[in-house]
Amino acid sequence: MTEKILIIGSNGQIGTELVTELRKNYGEANVVACDIRRPDYDMKNSGPFEFVNVLDKDNLTAIYQKYKPTQVYLLAALLSATGEQNPKLAWDLNMNGLLNVLDFSLEFGTKRVYWPSSIAVFGPNSPKQQTPQFCTMDPNTVYGISKLAGERWCEYYFCKYGLDVRSIRYPGLISWKAMPGGGTTDYAIHIFHDALKKGSYASFLSAETELPMMYMDDAIRGTIELMEAPAEKISIRSSYNFAGMSFNPEDLAAEIRKHLPNFKLHYKENDPRQQIANSWPQSIDDSVAKKDWQWQPEFNLEKLTLAMLTNLRKG
Known about the structure:
3-stranded parallel sheet; single chain; globular; UDP-galactose 4-epimerase, domain 1
C-alpha cells in the first residue's frame, strides 16, 4: 500500500527538513506539505502543498477527504518563549490542534500519527541529571503544560481507540537550514550565525546553563526511525525521552573557537528565557528509546559545530 503523508506545520524548523527527507523516502507526490503560510520556493515546487489551519475543522475535513492520509505528522505549535507571550493562544493551538488531528485521523482511518513533545514537559522538581522516562513532571510554562497534557491525550487515544500515535520529547534542536521558531534553546543556533557575521555573540542564557541538545540530522533520522518501527516494538505511547548531547554556552563557544579563535561570547542579563531554562533537565536518559527502536545519535558537539560552520559558510 502506498503511503500518503501529511506534514502539518511544514514550514517550521523541523518541518522543512522532514518534508525533504520523507519525499526522498516515499516519493514527492506522496508527501503533502501543509502550513498556514506559503512555503519557500523549493518546498512548494518539490511536491504538493496545501494551506492548512489546524484549528479550522472545515479546512481539515477537506484536506483529509482529498488525500486520505495514512500518516500525519502534526508539527504546528507555539514554542516555549513565544508561547509565554500569548499563553492562551499557545494552549489553543497546541492542545485543540492536537485533538482535531487525533479525531480526524480516527474518522478517516489514518493508520499512524506523529506528534512532537519536548523536554519542556519536565519542571523544577524533575531530576536534572539523566532525567528518566518516568519521573515527577511539573512544567511551569504554557508550552510545557500543553505538551504534558498532549502526551496524556496521545496515550489515551491509543489505549481507548487503538490509534497508533507516536511521539518524541525533543531536546533543543540545532539546524543551519531554517531559523528557529521562538524556543528557549535558540541561542545555540543564533551563536553560529553571529560568530560568522560579527565574531561575537550575546547569549540570553548564562554561562553555566547546561541543556540537552541535538543536531537536526539526528532528530529527523530518529523521528522517521520511530515512525517506521513495528508497532509491537513501541512501549511508550505518551512520548519517548530522546537525547543527543548536553552542553552550556561556554562549552559551545570553546568548540567554536577551535575554528574561529577570535570569537567572543558575552551575556545578557534578566532575559525571561533564563527562568525557563532553569526549570529544564541538564541531561536526558533515553535508554527506553535505545531499547525499543535502537535509537542512537551520530552527532556530538565537535561534529555538530563543524557541520554548522561548514554549511553556514556555504550559504
